[in-house]
Amino acid sequence: NGTSFTIARNPDSDAVLTGDFARTSRACPPFCIQPMVPVAGVPTLGELELLVFLRDKVAKGEGILLDARLPDWFAKGSIPSAVNVPFATPAPDNPFRYDILQALGAQPAGGGRLDFSAVPELVVFCNGGWSDQAARAMQALVEAGYPIEKLRYYRGGMQDWLMLGLTVSTAGRA
Fold first, then answer.
1. Exposed, middle or buried by CB within 10 Å (0-12, 13-18, 19+), for 139?
2. pTM of the predicted model as reported, rounded to 2 decimal places
3. 97-110: b (≥16 Cβ within 10 Å) or e
4. Considering Cα of 46, then 48, then 53, then 59, what sign does the dihedral take?
5. How far apart are CA 149 and CA 39, in angstroms?
6. Distance between CA atoms of 113 and 143, rounded to whole angstroms?
7. In Å, how far are 7, 8, 165 from 51, measured between CA atoms?
8. What string of pLDDT tens digits covers the 174 residues of the chain?
């Protein structure tokens, strides 16, 4: 959206995680450890690859960083430049799915179909390796026709991002 930001590590060597992201155990289900590749053919990125994506794709308008978490989690803080598209939004039962897919770059192709040939690359993330929200969003996107080769997965999500002390933005600010 034209907002500039700098991502840096927190220089406070005494900083610690607190709240939900400091927890080491969660009930499974629903919080089961996720595979490295939850959708066949979708590459998994680490933090350095995500930073390159932000610089080389998002900053140039050629990519979207998609936060698949629920809005209340997004409002608490997200990776700078992330767009909140909750995991259930691209699901087939959402009556606004067609509109959301267009907002992600798909073009109407007539007859209720969409053309995904010019969509941007997406990196999808959620809370971390214990959350299936990103996987569910990616699966729904692929089922809708989003090209697998245009999807990436940041499995570490907010937990790893915070653990590394990287910059977090709150809703409406970089």
1. middle
2. 0.93
3. beebbeebbbeeee
4. positive
5. 11
6. 13
7. 8, 10, 14
8. 677 889 999 999 999 988 888 888 889 998 999 999 999 999 999 999 999 999 999 999 999 999 999 999 999 999 999 999 999 999 999 999 999 999 999 999 999 899 999 999 999 999 999 999 999 999 999 999 999 999 999 999 999 999 999 999 986 544
